[in-house]
Design goal:
The complex is a heterodimer of chains A (about 230) and B (about 200).
Chain A (H helix, E strand, L loop, with lengths): L4 H12 L5 H13 L1 H18 L2 E2 L3 H26 L2 H19 L14 H4 L4 H16 L15 H4 L9 H23 L5 H25 L6
Helix pairs in contact in A: 1-3, 2-3, 7-9, 9-10
Chain B lengths: L4 H9 L3 H23 L2 H17 L10 H22 L21 E2 L13 H15 L3 H12 L4 H8 L3 H20 L10
The chains are: A mainly alpha (about 230), B mainly alpha (about 200).
């Protein structure tokens, strides 16, 4: 069926705007080669598009510098608030007490338990299910071999600073951290693949997510503490 | 080395100001053009421009690699622009600095940037070409706003139809029909011999 006039007009617009795939482009160019009138129209459209494409407005220099400073300040605001709070001894004591109580209540006795004498055991880093333990033991090597290109995390685990404070009293010991690095790597680099192959069940995914969340909260807390001028 | 947008966003996630600066340099004129043309009010455009980049830096962690960085940044700006227009509808104000019809977007403020190849030497634009361009922008300015913004995202900012749909939060088919209608209207206006010196006041 021959395309009608309206369809041809729209095809030419898509052509001029570079929205056709290679096959469609070839078809249009064959049509244009046969019809000089259409060729002129296509050229006019392309000229019009190129005239629009080159003009941009520079923001005024005052706005450029204001915007930079506003962005820097906004980025550092949460840390400044935390630093200011931690400079007050009463606030630190109160936060510490609340944090300790909440950690005991929420994190539970099993989490992060284990012995530093056995640094390689996955179970020593955290209390995890048999299923996840088995998955990690069988897939760690494969996971480690995956590309270390920065694959996107599937979810954003960031939490407000107040929640990160809950883990102040529970820093991870080095051997546990190493094992949790592996767990996080499964999440970051292998989650999609393992999940799509059916090697990770929904429950195991949820468990991995929980572990990664806790690890990131610990890291955020440690980073915030490291920012304190007096090392608190 | 020239870092990719994705690498710069990762830098922003870490709070790296140098990464933010590079991203800012890369997008500032495009974003400013888009925002100003969208809201057509200098004060609002400056506020939205600033807020867009604050959000880019402070919310870099929410960027998902399924989208392109450019689309994500334009989407932030477009959402802020839409909010501004809604606010304005509720409380109408008179703008003293709406761009004049027929004015090349670059002439309203200091100067035009040629993004295609900023390092190349461009031949001086002929008077005839300048006239054509002024006539074109006059015709663009007279398009209905939603057609104009949609067309500008594609033709001026180089986004694909699919990306325009994402930025404006509308179906792909709507983008296509808006752009087709916009271009047909423009061609008709330009064929009818719109002269740049008949700009509305």
């Amino acid at each position: 069926m021959e395309p009608d006039k309206n369809n041809i007009d729209e095809l030419l617009i898509d052509y001029a705007l570079g929205e056709l795939d290679a096959d469609e482009t070839t078809r249009v160019e064959l049509l244009l080669a046969e019809q000089p009138e259409l060729m002129r129209e296509a050229r006019a459209l392309k000229r019009m598009v190129s005239r629009m494409g080159v003009s941009m407005i520079m923001p005024p220099p005052r706005l450029v510098s204001q915007t930079r400073h506003a962005a820097y300040n906004a980025r550092s605001r949460p840390r400044r608030i935390l630093r200011a709070a931690l400079r007050r001894p009463a606030a630190v004591a109160a936060v510490g007490l609340v944090a300790a109580a909440l950690v005991v209540a929420l994190v539970g006795p099993g989490l992060w338990s284990g012995s530093d004498d056995e640094p390689t055991g996955i179970r020593q880093a955290a209390t995890i299910s048999e299923e996840l333990q088995s998955f990690l033991e069988h897939n760690l090597e494969e996971m480690r071999a995956l590309s270390r290109g920065d694959a996107p995390a599937e979810e954003d685990f960031s939490r407000p600073a107040a929640q990160a404070m809950l883990l102040l009293k529970q820093p991870l010991a080095p051997p546990h951290r190493a094992v949790l690095e592996d767990i996080e790597s499964v999440w970051r680099y292998g989650y999609d693949r393992f999940s799509s192959e059916g090697r990770l069940t929904d429950e195991t995914v949820a468990e991995l997510k929980e572990l990664v969340t806790r690890k990131r909260l610990v890291e955020r807390t440690e980073a915030m503490l490291a920012d304190q001028p007096d090392g608190r | 080395m020239h870092p990719s947008d994705e690498e710069l966003i990762l830098g922003c996630r870490r709070g790296d100001e140098a990464s933010f600066d590079q991203l800012f340099e890369r997008y500032r004129s495009r974003l400013f053009t888009f925002i100003w043309r969208y809201v057509r009010n200098r004060e609002a455009a400056e506020d939205i421009f600033q807020e867009t980049f604050v959000r880019v830096f402070t919310r870099a962690h929410s960027f998902r690699r399924r989208a392109k960085v450019s689309t994500w940044i334009y989407t932030i700006a477009a959402n802020l622009c839409r909010d501004e227009l809604k606010r304005r509808k509720r409380r109408p104000t008179v703008s003293l600095d709406e761009p004049m019809a027929g004015q090349d977007p670059g002439q309203a403020w200091t100067h035009v940037v040629r993004l295609a190849d900023e390092s190349a030497e461009h031949p001086r634009e002929s008077a005839e070409e300048a006239e054509h361009r002024a006539a074109l922008w006059q015709a663009v300015d007279e398009l209905p706003d939603e057609l104009r913004v949609t067309l500008e995202l594609q033709a001026q900012h180089g986004l694909k139809y699919r990306e325009v749909a994402e930025v404006l939060g509308i179906p792909l088919g709507t983008v296509q029909s808006r752009i087709h209608n916009a271009v047909k209207l423009l061609r008709r206006k330009l064929r009818d011999g719109l002269k740049p010196n008949t700009a509305r006041t």
